[in-house]
Design brief:
Blueprint (H helix, E strand, L loop, with lengths): L3 H11 L4 H8 L3 H9 L8 H15 L3 H12 L4 H48 L47 E7 L4 E8 L2 E9 L3 E6 L2 E6 L5 E5 L2 E2 L3 E3 L2 E7 L4
Antiparallel strand pairs: 1-4, 1-6, 2-3, 2-5, 5-9, 6-7, 8-9
């Protein structure tokens, strides 16, 4: 017996069949059949598929399949065609594992970037959206004066006990309360400075009220004057407008 391809081709011609007949009967493409008969195994897929092609070809011609497959193993130095198939499978599994590893590393990088961006946004929001600060003003204190006159024996004496509040006048006459309110259904950008310090900067929503105790000066810059009300110790103060913005300046020394 010659090569596998020669044996199959000889039997096919002996039976008067063409490559097209074999293709129709085995569903193997003609170019594969031609490569098998010519011994061009490098043009064929993995040995497992070739083994199946040979078995189908031999069965179609009515030949014993085992000698054909054994001859193919001998020609290609294969102990088992399935061994050849497992080699590329291992390579594919390794490549798949590498792709999974690359994907994991990529996700870790993306997650780290998201965390950094979140921290940056949090820091920026802390700088731009300061919460209103309410300075603490020392409370007015009272002192109790207890005066007792000493009684000297043999003399008439009186004991006088007096308790009178003594006000701490430091800043008591100049401190006032400023309240800023935004009307319901509106909103306004505000920048508020109290006693030389920025107390608030941002957009105050409608229905919100903020309050500060002022000991020196308060300055309010208003983005939408028509929606904002400013009061000093409960009394509404006028808002000056220019170029669409409003402003209020309140001094503790003003009556």
């Amino acid at each position: 017996m010659g090569t596998v391809g020669e044996t199959l081709a000889a039997e096919r011609r002996r039976q008067g069949k063409t490559i097209a007949d074999v293709e129709a009967g085995t569903k193997i493409m003609s170019r594969m059949l031609d490569a098998i008969e010519g011994g061009r195994y490098d043009e064929l897929p993995s040995p497992v598929y070739v083994k199946g092609y040979l078995q189908s070809y031999a069965q179609f011609l009515g030949m014993d399949m085992k000698p054909i497959v054994d001859a193919y193993k001998s020609e290609t130095s294969l102990t088992d065609p399935e061994d050849k198939l497992r080699i590329p499978d291992k390579a594919v599994v390794k490549q798949r594992d590498q792709l999974h590893a690359i994907s994991l590393n990529t996700w870790l990088i993306v997650a780290g970037a998201v965390v950094l961006v979140g921290l940056a946004l949090w820091a920026a929001s802390g700088l731009l959206g300061n919460e209103p600060a309410t300075p603490t003003i020392p409370p007015v204190t009272t002192e109790t004066v207890d005066t007792t006159e000493t009684v000297v024996p043999g003399e008439t004496s009186e004991t006088v006990e007096a308790s009178a509040p003594v006000e701490d006048t430091v800043g008591a006459d100049t401190t006032f309360t400023m309240v800023v309110t935004v009307a319901e259904g509106s909103a306004s950008w505000l920048r508020i400075t109290v006693d030389g310090l920025k107390a608030y900067e941002g957009t105050l929503p409608g229905g919100e009220t903020q309050e500060w105790i002022v000991t020196d000066t308060a300055v309010v810059i208003i983005g939408q004057p028509s929606a904002v009300t400013v009061t000093r110790d409960g009394t509404e103060v006028p808002i000056e407008t220019a170029d669409g913005r409003g402003s209020v300046t309140l001094n503790a020394s003003d009556e």
